[in-house]
Amino acid sequence: MAARALASVTVSFGMVSIPVKLYTATQAQAGVSFNLLHAGCGSRLKQQYLCAREGVVVERADMVKGYEFAKDQYVTFTPEELKELEEKGTQTIEISEFVPAESIDPIYYDKAYFLGPDKGGAKPYALLAESMRQTHQTAIGRYAARGKQYIVQLRAVPGGLVMQQLLYAPEVRALADIGIEEAPVRDSELALAKQLIAQISSEQFNPGAYEDDVRKRIEAAVQKKVEGEEIAVSPSAPEAGAQVIDLMEALRASLEKTAGKRAPPKTAAASPATEIKAAQRKPPKKIATEPETRRKAAKR
Fold this sequence. Notes:
single chain; alpha+beta; Ku70, Chain: A, Domain 2; 7 helices
């Protein structure tokens, strides 16, 4: 089934205009949706808005939008005033600069869209995509739609262009705000952790290898309910408290658990997996634990 375009827009690249069509690149499958029902008769419930002061139901015709500028103090806006504040759609993606893709932290990524050439746009579309591939650059621009203004990134991928909607700087929190405690890492711990990473590494990410198990369980349970079957409910398990673990032992156990699950890549040079197995047969001196070091020192 052919994809349906959301809109026809123009990419402005200097004095070059590229007519393109905008397509959704993702489809939301966050979870199975449930409705609220009346437990007594099974009828669906309706949402109502109550006035906090008078306690009466307020109809939509009697509602206005307001902004709280101080505690319980609001300024109100009419629909016409809010419409005036909206960004006017230009159906144009204006490229303002080019930057390396790695200079954009993925935390700024929001929604993604495919761009396809519109009538008469195949040649300039291919030119922009190929020039970005060869220069290893991505385009940053602005796009106005649905009354809002968006900052977007255009990046060349195999087969075409992707428009990545980006978040504005105030929309992204700083990691420093959560207050991460500094903790020293020993060389022996780091060596084992790096071995574990190498042992369960893949050449590339394969999204098809992952499925939403929760969604599958819910859909299976829904089907059982439709067919009149009962769902067995497991007793609630007590919450386990935080466990204090020996980090070195946990790393070693992880290495032993994952050993042999992945076949070593067939290359002429020694693979990371081969080097890991060799290291496990004869661990380097720096990986020795502190108790072992003390025993050796006592013997000397």
